[in-house]
Structures are given as structure tokens and as C-alpha cells.
């Protein structure tokens, strides 16, 4: 589920539509969280679909840790990519605002964090020389993504959290401990490998 202070708006002819903040969303706020209304499709089922529906699934879904395709039930599926995103994924099935997101500003995430199989070119952006989302981005970018998430977590208990009640029971104690500085934040790399040290050495 996307933060309630957002709406779908037309961004440009090149980009199409995107998710935009309607009020200030402070740094450290949960901006998106997985919930039970999301549509989860098994790979075999998606493989059995006709080409037209497959293309829609591939465009608007992401793969979860079980290899299932997940389609968000609300307008969060229209969140666009940026190499300088204002939202960051965590291991707890939610994203945090990495800085204050102003009214009228588009919410963005780095698609590289999803470990996409297919690489693709992106529109040029000021402040970065990255132009392509690569399948192994997570292996090279995770230290920066982890730092963004750690910094955002420092504000977690100081801001309003309208989506906090949707945090899964299995995560809530650890989330509160991380936000209070009592436990380290697990690396986003753990979603891709059981042993981040092994991946570093490869």
C-alpha cells in the first residue's frame, strides 16, 4: 500500500504517469508497504498466460523472495525509477523516504534494487552518470542503499507513520529495535543471498 498522502498524476510524455506527494512526507516515513491486498501470482501461472497479459504482469509486478510475481493493488505500481530516488527498500517489505518529499514531488525508487533479470536504458538524470539498470546493480550499490536506509531509520519514531500498522508481525520487534538504534539494520543484500560476505568475495 502506498502512503495515503499521494496520488497518481501525469508526469510527462516520456515518463507517463507517476506517484506524487499531495502533502509533505517527512524523511523516515514508510511510503510503501506490502500488504495482503497485493496480487501474488506463481511463475507457472504467469508462464501460462497469453502474451498480452504477460506483458502487463511483467511491467507492473516485482518478484518477491519466493520468486512469485507481485502486483500492487493500488497506484504504488506506478512508482517510477530514479538513480537518485527519494524512497529506499528495506528487508522488512516496506520502503522509507530517504529525505523529505515535498508536495507535488514524485516518489521514486531505484529499480536496480529489485534485481531485475533484464537490463534497460533510462532517461538521463542530473547528478548521476548512471544510465542503465543492470541485473547485478544490487551487488555494487547495496552499501549506499543500506546507508540511506540506516539514515532514514533514525527518523522513524520521530515522524507520523500512517502505514505502521501494516508491518508484518514477524518484523515489528526488529523494526522497532532498529529504529531505536538497539540493533543493526540487516543489509538489503540479504534478500538476494544468504551470505553477503560470500557475494563480496566472488
UniProtKB/TrEMBL annotation:
Segments forming domain SET: 4-112
GO biological process: methylation
Protein name: SET domain-containing protein-lysine N-methyltransferase
SUPFAM superfamilies: SET domain (SSF82199)
A Pfam family that the UniProt record links to this protein: SET
Transferase is among the record's keywords: yes
Keywords assigned: Methyltransferase, Transferase
Domain of life: Bacteria
Xref: SMART domains: SET (SM00317)
GO molecular function per UniProt: methyltransferase activity
